[in-house]
Amino acid sequence: MIQTLFESRYALSPDETKQMDTTRLRDNFLIERIFDADTVSLTLTHYDRYIAGGAMPVNNTLVLPNPDALKADYFLERRELGIINVGAKGTVVADGTSYELDFKEALYIGKGTKEVSFISADPQNPAKFYINSAPAHHTYPAKKVSKAEAEIVELGSAETANHRVINKLLVNSVLPTCQLQMGMTELKSGSVWNTMPAHTHDRRMEVYFYFEVPKGQSVCHFMGQPQETRHIWMQNEQAVISPNWSIHAGAGTSNYTFIWGMAGENLDYGDMDHCAINELK
């Protein structure tokens, strides 16, 4: 049975957020279910009208839906789309052009594409297409980006438990986009901290998607203003919304991988307001 799940979430201020208990924090910022068999699951946040979700085709071809809340003739009428496959091999078809995506390969699809569908190569070992989308003002061509084509940066160290490799996949140094940027950070064995020292960036928001979290392990995601932080415990293949006023950092009980997606008024990856580690509260 093919399903479409869609949820819309309001944007919240720092003052509202710091009054929340665990349940309310999770209800507003955590996206618990990204992948279900033969389902497209989408969550719209009013922070920059960003959409995050997943498509997991098993026995059927899945078509990117057009939720009523978008008030558009089709999903990408005024949007752009980024996809990273975190499952087995599959194919994305965009207006009749097929793009085969293997594990950890990415695809950008520009504004104006009328139909996007998702297919797994093997129903017994399905693809898992992680999806991000942002409003777009210009049409840029579709492009597949492999890890070999990514801009790669290695940061951190084993001594500070944050030795990691950043794969910049769908960023403006690799291909043109309107405002959507996506990449993937892989932590080395023995390292658990990501994005540390933490930072904020007032001109764009982010969504983090955690995966390759080993069975029985978890990730603790930290959010909030630098002097008013909160935490959310997360499991494998879950995502969390990060407002522009919030830090976004995590520590796991094991190493793991996460996908960062962001949108806002600028494409400067280095536009960050860093927070000193010993000044976080």
TrEMBL record:
> What stretches pass through the bilayer?
none
Pathway linked to the protein: Glycan metabolism; pectin degradation; 2-dehydro-3-deoxy-D-gluconate from pectin: step 4/5
**What EC identifiers does the entry list?**
5.3.1.17
Q: Which domain of life is it from?
A: Bacteria
So what does this thing catalyse? Answer: 5-dehydro-4-deoxy-D-glucuronate = 3-deoxy-D-glycero-2,5-hexodiulosonate
Q: Which family does it belong to?
A: Belongs to the KduI family.
Q: Which protein are we looking at?
A: 4-deoxy-L-threo-5-hexosulose-uronate ketol-isomerase
Organism, by scientific name, is Pedobacter psychroterrae
The primary gene name is kduI
